Amino acid sequence: MVYYLKVGDTIHKKQHSLLNRAKEATNMLKEHIDKDDTIRIISHNDADGISAAAIIANALNEEKIQYHISIVPRLTDKVIDKLRQEQYPLFIFSDMGSAFVKELNFFKNDVIIADHHQVDDVESDSNLIHVNPHLFGIDGSKDLSGAGSSYLILRELDKKHLSYFALIGAFGDMQGQKGFTGINEMIVQDGVNTGNIEITEGLKIVSKSSEPLFKSLAYTFTPPLPGITGDLEGSMAFLEKTGISYGIKFSDLALEEKDALMERLIAINPDIFGNIYYIPKENPLLRDLEEYAYILDATGKNKKTGLGLSIAIGERKKALETAQNIQRIYRKNIVKGLEWIKKNGTIELNAIQYLYSDDKLFKSIMGTIISIALSIKSIDSSKPVFGLSKLHKDIKISGRTTRELVDKGVDLGKALHDSSNNFGGQGGGHDIAAGAMVSEESKDLFLHLVDEIVEHQLNSN
Ligand SMILES: [Mn+2]
Known about the structure:
The chain is an alpha/beta fold. The chain is built from 17 helices and 13 strands.
């Protein structure tokens, strides 16, 4: 008998398979919890990775289980070799690990990978459980974050109240800005059902009650407000024209001023009005999930992941103050980076464009500034863009493109994976956003190979 699944059923089936795989990981984790084992956690240093580690840490705290966390910028053979010497009965790799199944298969003890980056075609051994949406045909760049994957391995341990961290991770990886889809939607429902998330409609601008309005607007990087985003003077000029004092905080505006501002901003970008997801019981600075993600992002990008993590496991007051200061500096640097891009532009090859800087200031924010520059159109988006920065004797590459080019066949994760391997480097990630590292001397040849690969991706689609 032949029968056809409707689209909805297919999606449901994929989600079901993913949840089954997560269940296997839950069982493995449960065994170690029951034995009172100390658990080793390795996670990524961005907002998603910190959120992923925080979900696991909060869950283990509740179970009174000890753990040891390392937050790293990327997984390398060297990191893995070192971890392999350690005697922990269970290793959890969150928001990373999927590209290293082959290496992690060599671990004698148990391993769980909870990731959402692209996967290699490698079978996992019996003591390794690999949770990743891509394994089941679900798009991990859109529908589930690394924190989401980590949440799924804990969800059935009565941890649905931690679901909001999965969404903070999703926001950190630019997944929720236009609404949540797929398995992320189910996670939103978990948060709403447990009373940990509420949803309201409003203006999606940042720091409404902590910064003067012109900064709130200029530091609103998503959704983009061309002419205002990343441009403090542009923001002041806009407010002057609107007849609103730029030094006042949004939260102190009169109702009719808020309405006037909303109308003018919606005319620039309708996405500025939309769903706001918030944690009702949380401190005002962290209440909005998206802003929570931006604070974690700022700590991660400034090598203060310990601070980000401690906030996510409950530290407030001084920790939050420090994080806020770090965020202020971080935002200023992003504005500087955007000015640099505006002034210098990109260098075009056939199918890609790139920019290069050896300024230390930009090395940790390159990916962020090229994403924003694309969105406010200070970089033309018709070709994928690669930001290169110097890191000791290596070149770090961040690639970003648009959903339109992905639909035309572009896959940056694959392009950077294949090209960097060719030069003895490492790379990978998502179709729309990816990263790599190669040696300085291979920079030009590497760029030409990436260019050829992307050209081929576009032609063979
Ligand atoms: Mn991630």
